[in-house]
Amino acid sequence: MKRWTRLLVCGLLAAGSTLCLAVPVDAGDEKYAKLFDGYDACFMLYNVGAHKMMSEYNPHDRCSERLAPNSTFKVPLSLMAFDQSLIDQKTVFKWNGEKYDRPEINRDQTPRSWLQDSALWVSQEIAPQLGEARIKHYLDGFHYGNQDFSGDPGANNGLTHAWLSGSLRISAMEQLAFLQAMLANKLPVSQAAVADTKLNMYLGKLDGGADYYGKTGAGRHKMRAADPGPSKLRDGWFVGFVEKDGQQYIFVSNLTDKQIPGPSAKSAGSVILKPLVLQLLNERFAK
Protein backbone atom coordinates (compact mmCIF):
# COMPACT_ATOMS: atom_id res chain seq x y z
CA MET A 1 0.00 0.00 0.00
CA LYS A 2 1.24 3.43 -0.86
CA ARG A 3 1.53 5.94 1.95
CA TRP A 4 0.88 9.53 0.93
CA THR A 5 2.17 12.49 2.91
CA ARG A 6 2.46 16.18 2.19
CA LEU A 7 5.78 17.97 2.10
CA LEU A 8 6.25 21.72 2.42
CA VAL A 9 8.82 22.71 -0.17
CA CYS A 10 10.42 26.10 0.47
CA GLY A 11 13.01 27.94 -1.57
CA LEU A 12 14.56 31.32 -0.80
CA LEU A 13 15.01 33.30 -3.98
CA ALA A 14 17.77 35.81 -4.56
CA ALA A 15 15.27 38.64 -4.57
CA GLY A 16 14.43 37.81 -0.96
CA SER A 17 11.06 36.17 -1.52
CA THR A 18 10.34 32.66 -0.34
CA LEU A 19 8.56 30.01 -2.38
CA CYS A 20 6.68 27.38 -0.38
CA LEU A 21 4.64 24.59 -1.91
CA ALA A 22 2.65 21.81 -0.32
CA VAL A 23 3.00 18.87 -2.65
CA PRO A 24 1.89 15.23 -2.43
CA VAL A 25 4.72 12.80 -1.83
CA ASP A 26 4.49 9.08 -2.38
CA ALA A 27 6.71 7.90 0.48
CA GLY A 28 6.58 4.31 -0.75
CA ASP A 29 7.26 4.86 -4.42
CA GLU A 30 8.59 1.49 -5.49
CA LYS A 31 9.68 2.78 -8.88
CA TYR A 32 12.18 5.23 -7.43
CA ALA A 33 13.29 2.85 -4.70
CA LYS A 34 14.08 0.23 -7.32
CA LEU A 35 15.82 2.70 -9.62
CA PHE A 36 18.03 4.04 -6.83
CA ASP A 37 18.55 0.71 -5.10
CA GLY A 38 21.79 0.71 -3.13
CA TYR A 39 21.95 4.49 -2.79
CA ASP A 40 20.63 7.25 -0.58
CA ALA A 41 19.09 9.40 -3.27
CA CYS A 42 16.95 12.42 -4.06
CA PHE A 43 15.12 13.41 -7.23
CA MET A 44 12.88 16.40 -7.92
CA LEU A 45 11.24 17.64 -11.12
CA TYR A 46 9.69 21.09 -10.85
CA ASN A 47 7.44 22.92 -13.34
CA VAL A 48 8.68 26.51 -13.32
CA GLY A 49 5.67 28.12 -14.99
CA ALA A 50 3.08 26.27 -12.94
CA HIS A 51 5.05 26.60 -9.66
CA LYS A 52 4.42 22.93 -9.15
CA MET A 53 6.48 19.91 -8.13
CA MET A 54 5.76 17.33 -10.82
CA SER A 55 7.69 14.44 -9.36
CA GLU A 56 9.71 13.82 -6.22
CA TYR A 57 11.68 11.15 -4.42
CA ASN A 58 12.71 12.36 -0.97
CA PRO A 59 13.09 9.45 1.48
CA HIS A 60 14.05 10.50 5.01
CA ASP A 61 14.16 14.13 3.86
CA ARG A 62 17.22 13.37 1.72
CA CYS A 63 16.60 16.45 -0.44
CA SER A 64 17.31 18.68 2.57
CA GLU A 65 20.68 17.07 3.32
CA ARG A 66 23.61 19.27 2.39
CA LEU A 67 26.38 17.74 0.28
CA ALA A 68 29.46 19.23 -1.32
CA PRO A 69 28.41 20.62 -4.73
CA ASN A 70 31.58 19.32 -6.40
CA SER A 71 31.44 20.10 -10.14
CA THR A 72 27.89 21.49 -10.04
CA PHE A 73 29.65 24.53 -8.53
CA LYS A 74 30.84 25.32 -12.04
CA VAL A 75 27.37 26.78 -12.70
CA PRO A 76 27.55 29.56 -10.07
CA LEU A 77 31.27 30.02 -10.79
CA SER A 78 30.47 30.54 -14.48
CA LEU A 79 27.85 33.14 -13.57
CA MET A 80 30.40 34.99 -11.43
CA ALA A 81 33.12 34.89 -14.09
CA PHE A 82 30.85 36.12 -16.89
CA ASP A 83 29.34 38.79 -14.63
CA GLN A 84 32.81 40.12 -13.76
CA SER A 85 33.88 40.00 -17.44
CA LEU A 86 36.75 37.71 -16.48
CA ILE A 87 35.66 35.53 -19.40
CA ASP A 88 33.57 35.70 -22.54
CA GLN A 89 32.60 32.99 -25.00
CA LYS A 90 35.83 33.55 -26.96
CA THR A 91 38.10 33.00 -23.94
CA VAL A 92 40.66 30.22 -24.26
CA PHE A 93 42.09 28.69 -21.10
CA LYS A 94 45.60 27.50 -21.94
CA TRP A 95 46.48 24.00 -20.74
CA ASN A 96 49.83 23.94 -18.93
CA GLY A 97 50.70 20.41 -20.01
CA GLU A 98 49.93 18.70 -16.71
CA LYS A 99 48.42 15.27 -17.35
CA TYR A 100 45.09 14.42 -15.73
CA ASP A 101 43.19 11.14 -15.54
CA ARG A 102 40.65 12.23 -18.17
CA PRO A 103 42.19 12.95 -21.58
CA GLU A 104 39.40 15.33 -22.59
CA ILE A 105 40.69 17.94 -20.14
CA ASN A 106 44.33 17.59 -21.22
CA ARG A 107 43.99 20.40 -23.74
CA ASP A 108 43.06 24.06 -24.02
CA GLN A 109 39.53 24.78 -22.81
CA THR A 110 36.73 27.23 -23.63
CA PRO A 111 33.94 28.36 -21.29
CA ARG A 112 31.71 25.74 -22.91
CA SER A 113 34.17 22.85 -22.77
CA TRP A 114 35.00 23.81 -19.18
CA LEU A 115 31.42 22.89 -18.23
CA GLN A 116 30.92 20.13 -20.78
CA ASP A 117 34.15 18.27 -19.95
CA SER A 118 34.16 19.39 -16.30
CA ALA A 119 37.72 20.68 -16.32
CA LEU A 120 38.62 21.24 -12.68
CA TRP A 121 41.85 23.04 -13.48
CA VAL A 122 39.88 25.85 -15.15
CA SER A 123 37.78 26.34 -12.01
CA GLN A 124 40.99 26.47 -9.99
CA GLU A 125 42.24 29.28 -12.25
CA ILE A 126 39.02 31.29 -12.18
CA ALA A 127 38.28 31.16 -8.44
CA PRO A 128 41.57 32.81 -7.36
CA GLN A 129 41.01 35.57 -9.92
CA LEU A 130 37.63 36.28 -8.37
CA GLY A 131 39.01 36.15 -4.83
CA GLU A 132 37.43 34.82 -1.67
CA ALA A 133 35.68 38.05 -0.65
CA ARG A 134 33.99 38.46 -4.03
CA ILE A 135 32.97 34.80 -4.18
CA LYS A 136 31.47 35.00 -0.69
CA HIS A 137 29.54 38.10 -1.74
CA TYR A 138 28.08 36.22 -4.70
CA LEU A 139 27.31 33.12 -2.61
CA ASP A 140 25.38 35.31 -0.18
CA GLY A 141 23.43 36.87 -3.05
CA PHE A 142 22.77 33.43 -4.51
CA HIS A 143 21.68 32.01 -1.11
CA TYR A 144 23.97 29.16 -2.09
CA GLY A 145 23.99 26.50 0.63
CA ASN A 146 26.10 27.17 3.72
CA GLN A 147 28.23 29.73 1.80
CA ASP A 148 31.38 28.40 3.53
CA PHE A 149 34.32 28.96 1.20
CA SER A 150 37.04 28.46 3.81
CA GLY A 151 38.26 25.11 2.47
CA ASP A 152 39.88 22.39 4.55
CA PRO A 153 40.60 23.35 8.18
CA GLY A 154 44.04 24.93 8.45
CA ALA A 155 44.87 24.34 4.78
CA ASN A 156 44.03 27.79 3.40
CA ASN A 157 42.80 26.16 0.19
CA GLY A 158 39.26 27.48 -0.16
CA LEU A 159 39.91 29.08 -3.54
CA THR A 160 40.91 25.73 -5.04
CA HIS A 161 39.12 23.11 -2.94
CA ALA A 162 36.14 24.54 -0.99
CA TRP A 163 33.58 22.92 -3.31
CA LEU A 164 35.41 19.58 -3.65
CA SER A 165 33.93 17.42 -0.89
CA GLY A 166 35.01 20.29 1.35
CA SER A 167 33.59 23.16 3.37
CA LEU A 168 30.96 24.37 0.87
CA ARG A 169 27.69 22.46 1.18
CA ILE A 170 24.30 22.71 -0.50
CA SER A 171 21.11 20.67 -0.41
CA ALA A 172 18.99 19.58 -3.35
CA MET A 173 16.25 21.93 -2.14
CA GLU A 174 18.73 24.81 -2.21
CA GLN A 175 19.97 23.79 -5.65
CA LEU A 176 16.35 23.94 -6.83
CA ALA A 177 15.86 27.44 -5.42
CA PHE A 178 19.16 28.58 -6.95
CA LEU A 179 18.26 27.28 -10.42
CA GLN A 180 14.79 28.76 -10.17
CA ALA A 181 16.25 32.17 -9.36
CA MET A 182 18.74 31.81 -12.22
CA LEU A 183 16.04 31.02 -14.79
CA ALA A 184 13.94 33.92 -13.50
CA ASN A 185 16.93 36.31 -13.77
CA LYS A 186 16.62 37.06 -10.06
CA LEU A 187 20.26 36.41 -9.19
CA PRO A 188 22.58 39.42 -8.65
CA VAL A 189 24.32 38.93 -12.00
CA SER A 190 23.71 40.30 -15.47
CA GLN A 191 21.20 38.66 -17.78
CA ALA A 192 24.08 38.18 -20.22
CA ALA A 193 25.96 36.13 -17.61
CA VAL A 194 22.89 33.94 -17.18
CA ALA A 195 22.40 33.55 -20.94
CA ASP A 196 26.04 32.58 -21.50
CA THR A 197 26.01 30.08 -18.65
CA LYS A 198 22.76 28.50 -19.84
CA LEU A 199 24.17 28.20 -23.35
CA ASN A 200 27.19 26.30 -22.05
CA MET A 201 24.99 23.99 -19.96
CA TYR A 202 23.16 22.73 -23.05
CA LEU A 203 23.50 18.94 -23.36
CA GLY A 204 21.20 18.06 -26.25
CA LYS A 205 17.73 16.65 -26.79
CA LEU A 206 15.81 14.05 -24.86
CA ASP A 207 14.23 11.17 -26.76
CA GLY A 208 10.99 13.11 -27.20
CA GLY A 209 12.77 16.16 -28.62
CA ALA A 210 12.85 18.37 -25.52
CA ASP A 211 16.05 20.35 -24.93
CA TYR A 212 17.89 19.67 -21.71
CA TYR A 213 20.64 21.51 -19.89
CA GLY A 214 22.63 20.31 -16.93
CA LYS A 215 25.76 19.81 -14.89
CA THR A 216 27.03 16.75 -13.08
CA GLY A 217 29.19 16.60 -9.98
CA ALA A 218 31.04 13.80 -8.21
CA GLY A 219 33.10 13.39 -5.06
CA ARG A 220 33.49 11.49 -1.83
CA HIS A 221 30.91 11.80 0.92
CA LYS A 222 32.11 14.15 3.69
CA MET A 223 35.70 13.45 2.69
CA ARG A 224 37.01 16.58 4.36
CA ALA A 225 34.43 17.02 7.10
CA ALA A 226 34.26 15.17 10.42
CA ASP A 227 35.40 11.80 9.10
CA PRO A 228 38.82 10.74 10.45
CA GLY A 229 39.94 9.63 6.99
CA PRO A 230 38.88 9.82 3.36
CA SER A 231 35.43 8.34 2.78
CA LYS A 232 34.97 5.63 0.20
CA LEU A 233 31.27 6.46 -0.23
CA ARG A 234 30.64 8.18 -3.55
CA ASP A 235 28.48 11.29 -3.97
CA GLY A 236 26.90 12.16 -7.31
CA TRP A 237 24.90 15.14 -8.58
CA PHE A 238 22.97 15.85 -11.76
CA VAL A 239 21.10 19.16 -11.87
CA GLY A 240 19.64 21.26 -14.65
CA PHE A 241 16.48 22.04 -16.56
CA VAL A 242 14.38 20.94 -19.52
CA GLU A 243 12.71 23.19 -22.08
CA LYS A 244 9.69 21.94 -24.01
CA ASP A 245 6.86 23.78 -25.75
CA GLY A 246 7.87 27.08 -24.19
CA GLN A 247 7.88 25.67 -20.67
CA GLN A 248 10.81 25.09 -18.30
CA TYR A 249 11.22 22.25 -15.84
CA ILE A 250 14.02 22.10 -13.27
CA PHE A 251 15.46 18.75 -12.22
CA VAL A 252 17.72 18.19 -9.22
CA SER A 253 19.12 14.83 -8.20
CA ASN A 254 21.87 13.39 -6.05
CA LEU A 255 22.95 10.09 -4.57
CA THR A 256 25.40 8.57 -2.09
CA ASP A 257 26.46 4.96 -1.72
CA LYS A 258 24.72 3.20 1.16
CA GLN A 259 27.68 0.86 1.53
CA ILE A 260 31.34 1.08 0.58
CA PRO A 261 31.56 -0.10 -3.03
CA GLY A 262 33.72 -3.06 -3.95
CA PRO A 263 37.18 -2.72 -5.50
CA SER A 264 35.75 -3.24 -8.99
CA ALA A 265 33.42 -0.22 -8.66
CA LYS A 266 35.29 2.40 -10.68
CA SER A 267 32.47 4.73 -11.77
CA ALA A 268 32.07 8.14 -10.17
CA GLY A 269 28.76 8.93 -8.50
CA SER A 270 27.70 11.24 -11.32
CA VAL A 271 28.38 8.54 -13.92
CA ILE A 272 25.99 6.27 -12.03
CA LEU A 273 23.35 8.94 -11.50
CA LYS A 274 23.12 10.69 -14.88
CA PRO A 275 21.69 7.75 -16.89
CA LEU A 276 19.14 7.05 -14.14
CA VAL A 277 17.92 10.64 -14.27
CA LEU A 278 17.88 10.65 -18.06
CA GLN A 279 15.70 7.55 -17.91
CA LEU A 280 13.21 9.43 -15.72
CA LEU A 281 13.31 12.53 -17.92
CA ASN A 282 12.88 10.55 -21.12
CA GLU A 283 9.85 8.80 -19.64
CA ARG A 284 8.33 12.08 -18.47
CA PHE A 285 8.92 14.01 -21.71
CA ALA A 286 8.37 11.14 -24.13
CA LYS A 287 5.54 12.93 -25.93
Describe what is shown at a glance:
The protein is α+β, with helices and mostly antiparallel strands and 287 residues long. 30% of the residues lie in helices and 24% in strands.
Question: What does it look like?
Answer:
α2 packs across α4 (120-130) and α2 (74-83) packs across α8 (191-201). By secondary structure, this protein is α+β, with helices and mostly antiparallel strands. It has helices at residues 30-35, 74-83, 111-116, 120-130, 132-142, 158-161, 172-183, 191-201, 269-284; strands spanning 4-12, 18-26, 39-47, 52-57, 202-205, 211-220, 234-244, 247-257. It has a six-stranded antiparallel beta sheet with strand order 4-3-8-7-6-5, sandwiched between helices. Strands 1-2 form a two-stranded antiparallel sheet.
Protein traits:
alpha+beta, Beta-lactamase, 6-stranded antiparallel β-sheet, 8 strands
Low-confidence stretches: 1-9, 20-25
Portion in helices? 25-40%
Which term fits the overall shape? globular
* CATH level 3 topology: Beta-lactamase
How is the main sheet built? 6 strands, antiparallel
**Rg of Cα set:** 18 Å
Strand content bin: 15-25%
- Quick one: CATH class? Alpha Beta
Annotated CATH architecture: 3-Layer(aba) Sandwich
> Number of DSSP helices?
9
By CATH, the superfamily comes out as DD-peptidase/beta-lactamase superfamily
Element-by-element helix/strand order: EEHEEHHHHHHHEEEEH
Strand order of the largest sheet: 4-3-8-7-6-5
> pLDDT average, as an integer?
90
Q: Could you tell me the number of beta strands?
A: 8
